[in-house]
Amino acid sequence: MKRILLLLAVLGLMQNAQAQFGLGGGGQKITITGRITAVIADSATKAPIDYATISLVRVKDNKSVNGAVTDAKGKVTLQNVAPDQYKLSIGFMGYKNKTVMLKTSPEKPDLNAGTIYISGTQSDLKEVAIVGKTPMIENKIDKVVYNAEQDVTTAGANASDVMRKVPMVTVDIDGNPTLRGSAVRVLINGKPSGTMSNSVSDALKMIPAEEIKSVEVITSPSAKYDAEGAGGIINIITKKKTAQGINGNASVSAGTRQNNGNFSLNGKKGRLGITSNFGVQYAIPQDTKVVLVNDNYTANTSLVQDGFTKAKRYGYNGSVGLDYDINAYNSLSTNIKYNDFTTGSDGSLGVISRVVDTTVNYNRFSKNNMSFKNVDWSADYRRTTKKEGEEFTVSGQASFGRNTSDYNTYNIFQNGQTSVPVIGDNTGKNNEYTVQTDYTYPFSKGVILETGLKGIFRTIKSKYESSEQDFDYNQDVGAAYGVLSFKLAKTIDVKGGLRAEYTDISGVSGSSLNFNNDYFNLFPSAIISKKMKGNSTLKLSYNRRMQRPSLNYLNPFLNRTDPQNQSQGNPSLSPELTDLVELGYSTFIKGSVINASIFYRSTMDVIESIYVPDQKLTTYSNVGNNRSYGANVFGSYNPLPKWTLMGNFSVSTYNVRNSDSGVSTGNYANYTVFARSAVAFTGGWNTEVFGVYNGRKKTFQGTSGAMAFYGGAFKKDIMKKQATVGVNVLNPFNRDLHIRTENKGATFLQSTNIYYPLRSFGVSFSYKFGKVTFSQPKKKKGVNNDDLKQDEGAGGMGGGVQPKQ
Q1: Which helix (H) or strand (E) holds 183?
Q2: Does domain 246-789 have CATH number 2.60.40.10?
């Protein structure tokens, strides 16, 4: 019943918007109307011009009453035109604007204006050169934008490489991004992806840098966005396929560690655009040294495991999208994506087990395999009006995920005997349906209202080898928001809003766990931005956010790949609630950029993994409340016109207190540092070097070790800049990256030492093909689900190594 009510609420907004926009029906009676037709052509070649913009303006009041774009034959038809005198305005990129006077009458309401010729702004219109240049970094009221298409050093790279250059973002060695030390939600063109939920690093490696237009960093999301967690939102904007004709890109990257390939093919004819993409990834298996220690002081036991695991990781993905502009005010788009990833590892460890005064030695062998398959389908309708900035959208998305996990582990003792294998498997299905409507209305140039409704319906079914342990979980979310933007003064912009969300949760696991929970929350947000002298901006913001735990956190499946280090989800987790206050300052000085911020963040019911020594189990828990202070400084400087220096430093405190037990971690500081130098030489040569240092991270029970890595690349444009070849290197002077993770308490110590095989060398090649002409892009909107807490570093480290093997 609640699902039906949520859906009816969403449809109610659609109906209301339909009434406002006049999408059908209505009581106004029009007695006489006609139509105006014309063909737009090139004055020099006489060829028809498709996708030219047509506007019909009434002469007596100079009011725009109709508009459209020409089709593939240069023809345009304007319907429902009342008899009057009009100005027909024609515009198209690379051509001079032209206005033609027309008149219709009640006796002759239909008018054929014939062929109208327009002339080019330059003598050769076969190729259009776009000379306007967007700055590499832009600072807007609610986000910072990194325009990746302006960075020539990204050619032949992937989205993970691009992320390392984005302000305030830190990327670990395997490509997982964090924002000011906290995990973030990554969106593609404002939409979530099931693949991102499973493995952010894998999904990013599948996106070639050539496809990325910009990256938006939203540290303080407004009420328009789903209730998101402490970190913020990273939104990757891909290049719009607005080019007429056929074009594409092929890229391949091969090396001693990672291998990637990607192919995209896009076409646009008139109002119809088609995009397609296919990518593959393969990580060469390498031995990873692992040393695990488990000491239980109460039971007087000790366990040491020392050996190697060999990880595997491979996958592929593909997508096909269609965009169709019905006319100048209405457009449709749809997209379907499929992703398939497989990870796993084979382990062989020597074990020394001591119980009181008895010591046993044996070897443990294990196989662990996981696969992630996901299909995302989305459809969007967008309508604009003659009023600039007014917009109504309806979006829907269906996501179908299937995850499988199986393991097999056994021991061989010194006498040659083999233990009974420990075997387990789990199949999880995650289906998600979303429908939303958004409406934007500009009261004036400086006052804009945004409103919307949204419904999300999630169903999770997890089946184990024993049907008695099956886990069924349902989560329904209904949301409504309103955001108002206005100018408080000439140099002061304000953006404030309120979001309301209702969540209904139910689930059952076997015969021992049956739960229901529902909660209603309000999420206010506010941003005040002041423009100062010298291209400087000062911003103060506040918002409240929530992150609900995802399937990895909730699934009670007991993974016994290592019986001495088992893992299990917790379906009784509560969501995290976060309040964030931030003061930011940014300035642009002769092409150099400085972006600095300080913030206070309070998070209730922090979700972290915890180790239970008596059960030899790692699970998840709401460990307590965290009050954190932090700062971030990003800078970009050009000592010479073609030499760019870039750096980022983030620090935040960690102090979690559990109100039930009274246990407090005390104050600790977590910090990250990134530095980069890039030089562009004449002849199409580009080079860069970078380094990353992530300091030791404090957790509720212990610490996660520091890590440092560095790399560089040389790239060369060839074939008249249609292709790029490159050589890259990562940690050339150190084969392994050593990371130590430790959990400890009064009665136990658990430590993990992993030596990831990091050193790698590789080559890359990227080629663009196709001859195109350009038309104006249209803004697209879609579903954006960013409310689920994900695993930090979901893709693992060192090509998919599972530490606890």
Answers
A1: strand 182-183
A2: no
